[in-house]
Queue: 2 jobs
Job 1
Amino acid sequence: MSTATQTAAPSPVIEMYHHAQAQAHPTATAASPDTTTAQARLPNDATERNALYSDEEKRSLSGIEARVRHDWTRDEIASIYSLPFHELIYNASTVHRMYWNPAEVQQCTLLSINTGGCTEDCSYCSQSTRYKTFVKPTPTMKVQEVLEAAQRAKDAGSTRFCMGAAWRELGNKKGAFRHILEMVRGVNGMGLEVCCTLGMLNAEQAKQLKEAGLTAYNHNLDTSPEHYPKVITTRSYEDRLQTIANVRDAGISVCCGGILGLGEKESDRVGLLHVLATLDEHPESVPINALVSVEGTPLGDREGDDIDSVDAFDMARMIATARIVMPRTMVRLSAGRLSFSDAEQYMMFQAGANSIFNGDKLLTTDNPEFDADEALFQKLGFQGKPAHKGPLVAPAEAGGEVIITKIQGSNSGQLEMAA
Ligand code: SAM
Ligand code: DTB
Ligand code: SF4
C-alpha cells in the first residue's frame, strides 16, 4: 500500500467526514448529551455501519495502525494482551481516538424487571435458586413502573436503558413477553437505546423484539470456551452462540462480553476476546465486568482458595486489548466499579472503555452513587454519549492526524485527515 497522500473523489463517507471536522470537538465539560448530537457518526448498527465502511482498510494515527479484522489468531491477541502495560495503554488509547471521541462516555441504566428464582447454576450469580444469597425472588415489574424508571434514567443523563430478567431463556413465557414488547416500545419511544437481557432467545422472539424497537440484546459468553464449563454447567457455550446468532440475524445490535475474576487464566481472557473478535461481525458492545463477589455463591465463598479479587491493571489490560481488536465496538466498564478508585477507573477509560452503568444498583448488587459518578465525569472532563450514535466518522483527537486507507481499487485511495 502506497503511503502517498492523494485527494479523494467525493463520496458520502468523505462528506460526512468534513461535517464531523467542523463539529468534532465539543467543550469537554459536563454538557448534556444533546449538545453533541450534530456530530457526524456512523450508525450504531453493524449492518449499516459495515456497508458504509466496506472500502475502509485501516486507520493510522501517530504511527499506530488499527483496522476492523475478523481473522485474529489467538496468538496475535495474546501478544497484544501481554505487551508492556505502558505500551498497551498508549496503543489502545490511540486506537480509541481514531474511532471514538475520548471525551464521551455513555451512561447506561440497568433495571432488573424479574429478579431471582433462576434455574441456572452460573457460579457467580446472586439470582440462581441453587445458592442461598441475599436475593429474594420478586414478581415481574409492571410495564408502567418500568417506563417510569426509564424516564428517570433519561432525566439523569442515561442514553441506554437495559432490562434484565433472571431467566435461563425467554421460552414459553407468552404473557411476560407481551409485556416486555410493550416495555421495549415505550423505552424506544423515549429516544433511548433499549437493551434487554432475558437469557436464551429463539429466532422468532428476536424478530419480534426487533419489530418492537429493541436496539441491543445482552448475552454474555463470560469467559473462554474451555473455562466456561467450570463456571456454568446448565447450558453450553454453543447455546450462547446460537442466541447471539439469532439476535444478529434479526438485525439487533449484539452486546456480549465477560467477567474477570472467575478463576480464569490469562489465556481464558484472551480466548474470550478471540471468540468475540472472530465473529462474522464484532459485537457493537462488549461489557467487561469484574466479578462482584456474592456471599452464598460458589465464587463468592472463596476465602482461602486461590481466586484473587480482580486487579485494576488486569481490567485495563482486558479493556485495552478489546479496544485494539474491536476498534468500532463500545467497550463497557460494567460490574465491579465499586472496588476501583477513581484513578483506577480513569486508567480503564484511557484503555478505551467508553461506557458505564450509572445509578446505585446494577441488577441486584451495588454500584457507585449517581453523585459520585457525576463528580468523576466533572473531574475527568467527560460528557455523555448521545443515544444511537456509533463510532466517529472523523478522528476526535484535537490536533491529531488520522490517515484512513481505502482498499485498493475503491474510488478514494488514501486520505490524510487532520482532526
Ligand atoms: N439471565 C440472563 C443471562 O444470564 O443471560 C440475563 C441476566 S444476567 C444477570 C447478565 C449478566 O450479568 C451475566 O451474563 C453475567 O455476565 C453478569 N453477571 C451476573 N452476576 C454477576 C456478578 N456477580 N458479577 C459480575 N457480573 C455478573
Ligand atoms: C453485563 O455484562 N453486566 C450487567 C449487564 N451486562 C446486564 C449486569 C451486571 C450484573 C452484576 C450483578 C448484579 O447486580 O446482580
Ligand atoms: Fe440465571 Fe442469568 Fe444469573 Fe445465570 S446469570 S443464574 S442465567 S440470572
Job 2
Amino acid sequence: MQEKIFRAEKLNTLGEMAASIAHEVRNPLTVVKGFLQLMQADDRQGKFPYLPLVLSELDRAEAIISDYLNFAKPKLEKMEVFDLGEFLDDMVQLLNPLSIKKSVALTGKMETGIQIRTDRNKLRQAVINLMKNAIEATPPGGRVSVTLSAAGTEAEIKISDTGKGMTTEQLARIGSLYYSTKEEGTGLGTMVSLSIIEAMGGKTVYASQPGVGTEVKVFLKRNESHGG
Ligand code: ADP
Ligand code: MG
C-alpha cells in the first residue's frame, strides 16, 4: 500500500482572497436563484423547460462557493465536547441517500465512549468531504465503511472504500489545490478536509491501491477528561 502523510500547508493569503470573492458572489447568486424559483413556480404551461437545469447549475455554483469558503476559513470557532461515535453515526446517516443513489453499501462501526473537544461544524465538513470522495470513487456494488476506535490518547477514524484507488502519482497530488479527476469536481474537498484536520492538531494518512481501494485514517486527540 502506498502511503501519504500530510503536514501543515499554509495558503492563508490565497485563502482570504478566495473567501472574500466567494462571499461577494454568493449574495447575487442567491437573489438570482430566488427569482428563478418564482419563475418556475409560475410556469405552469412549461414555457421554460430549461429552468430545472439552470437551477441545478446554480446549486453547483453554490456548492463550489461553500467549498471555497470552507477552504478559506479552517479556523476553529465554536469548541464543544461531544461523543465522536454518535457524531460519526449521524454522518453515516446523512450520506446514506448518496450511497443508495450510487448503489454503494455504506456502513459504520463506532467504538463507544470516545469524546472529543473541537468545532463540530468544521469536523462535519471535513468528514463529509472524505466520505463523499470514498462513495464517489466506489463502483456500484462496492462498499464504504467508517469505523472509530481509540488509539491511546487519540481517536482513529477510518474511512475505507473498495473504489478505484489511486496510483502513486495521483496520491501525491491529492490535497493540492484544484486537483480533481472528476468531470464536475472542484479539487477543493480534500484540501478543505486536510486543512480543517490540521487546524484541529490532527493528522490524516492515506493508503491506496489502484483497483483495490483507498483507506483514509484521521487521528484526533481525545478529550482529556474522558480517559485515554
Ligand atoms: P473533487 O472531489 O472535487 O474531485 P477532492 O479534493 O475532494 O476534489 O478530491 C481530489 C481527487 O482525489 C478526486 O478527484 C479523486 O481523483 C481523488 N480521490 C479523493 N478521494 C479518493 C478516494 N477515496 N478514492 C479514489 N480517489 C480519490
Ligand atoms: Mg471531493
